[in-house]
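the two lines:
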Amino acid sequence: MIETMAPTPAEAEEPALVDGPPKMSARNVDVFYGEKQALHAVSVEIHDDKVTAFIGPSGCGKSTFLRCLNRMNDTIPGARVTGEIELDGNDIYASEMDVVQLRARVGMVFQKPNPFPKSIYENVAYGPRIHGLAGNKSDLDGIVEKSLKRAGLWDEVKERLQESGTALSGGQQQRLCIARAIAVDPEVILMDEPCSALDPIATAKIEELIHELRGRYAIAIVTHNMQQAARVSQRTAFFHLGELVEYGRTKDIFTNPRQQRTQDYITGRYG
Amino acid sequence: MAATSGHTIKAFDEDLDRLRALISEMGGLAEHAIRESMRCLVQHDLKGAAKVVEDDKKLDALETETEKRAVQLIALRAPMAADLRDVVAAMKISSVVERIGDYAKNISKRVPLLADRDIEPLSLMPEMAKIATQMVHDVLNAFVERDAEAAVRVCERDKAVDDFYNSIFRTLLTYMMENPSNIGQSAHLLFIAKNVERVGDHATNIAEMVYYAATGEHMPERPRGEDSFTEMD
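prediction for all of em together
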């Protein structure tokens, strides 16, 4: 084979599809809402240093699956999850698993920015405080500053940390929510359509942020915007009717998918 | 993998169809140009040859049009997977077909310089061109039909064109050696044969593009006909 061009740094770091033990792995996950089965035998891995995108039409189960990864479905009456989901090889549905601790390790950012009706500072400080991550005020100040910096919001808010978080623009609120999620030093960040309520510029900032955060956290993102999945992720999982249809490298899924249903969906032929 | 049905947005299908139609139109013109250049060569039709040269402008314009529409389609529709491969293939194929038109033009420009009707390889040339133009015809049909198998079959025929070329090459060498006054004419015929041989090569290049567009895989390596670089012993 003739070498035509040196790989970019992003390409060079992923020679194989499966690389090292996964951060999280799901095997044969079924989810029921009462009698209705929402997910059928889903098996997916989420890796450190990679963004995994979940795509698929509305009602395909992608958000349901995302919510299984930090047991958010526990809060829904009648929801039942079977199968195995592991974080670093430990079953997150085991009886000894502390769900509050789990959600600190596996943070979540939602579709609509949902800052607490408190100051910008308090929004970020709340998590570290209840988890006892800061010994004193200056530790806490440090965590707040570091988190806001990592979320790309520090320069915009450093002069007004005591103002209400809800007074920020939509894009800033979403970055505040990301700062809040990373303040408790999570290992995995789940994002459920984090840009669908944002304008293109705010969306681009979040996407750039996802790119920067990738080196530090395993990230899983649900998105309706296929271009976004193509832009931000290295792995893509396509869901349809509660099944995982195809999982693979993002560049393969978007240039040469193996399954007809994936092909039809990403080229805009149904849904 | 081919698509099962039309796009949810119908105008997307129309854009893709229009692109395919442009490629077909270009292919038709290029085939005609090669056939006409051969007819003019055999019949020493200077007027016809001049028309082939003139008509090449249409191909150039269609290539520009194809590129413009492909860029628009990428910008406005953000095609993915097989659709994206199709659009990229259309852009590449249009520039190759335009090149085939240039070969026809080049052949036609040599027609006035070939007044000697007795030179024998002249009679082989239209036969060779027939295979090459049929390859162009079939490979563009394969593109429109997204038929990877048909593309592979086109490649297999390139050997016949290469064999013709090698045979003509040897014959012309003999001519030139026999009588140096034949060298001028023979050199022109050699260029013409080479042009036709290149048309066959371009058809196989298009076949590779069609195969990739249709399957997402690159065409497996195939045995190639050897070009003749026979030394004069």
